[in-house]
Amino acid sequence: MKEQITREFVDLTIRVPAPLAVRMQRFMEAALELIEDQEHDRLYAFEELFPDFHAGNALRGARTREGLTQAQLAERVGVKIHHISEMENRKRPIGKEMAKRLSKALNIGYRVFL
User: Fold this and answer.
1) What are the residue ranges spanned by the domains of the chain?
2) Which residues have CB under 8 Å from 101's CB, separation 6+?
3) Which tens digit of pLDDT belongs to each residue from 13-45?
4) Long-range contact pairs involving 79-84 (C-beta distance under 8 Å, separation at least 24)
5) For the domain 55-113, what is the CATH superfamily, name and number?
6) Confidence (pTM)
7) Which stretches in the chain have pLDDT values below 50?
8) Does residue 40 sit in helix, strand or coil?
């Protein structure tokens, strides 16, 4: 994300895959509505702005960004294919050790999966 500050305003540029643009726009509009209804000087937890987001979303997004199928990722981290599907769909937790294996395979920090 690119950030440029100009006096009272901040310009943010977010690059997302074209098919996700409308979804991201809806997320941002919802976040702005929440913020406009609240105090402007308070910080918001990520979970407040995106309550439906979970580690499985991050896993699916990182996997897609790297151009991997569930089968390819499963092979890289040494698990069965259905384990990747279950993690993406919140049916299987992602522990710290698995998060580290996924992060190495997906070129992303492991904490995003915890």
Assistant:
1) 2-49, 55-113
2) 77, 78
3) 777 778 888 888 888 887 777 777 666 666 667
4) 84/59
5) lambda repressor-like DNA-binding domains (1.10.260.40)
6) 0.64
7) none
8) coil
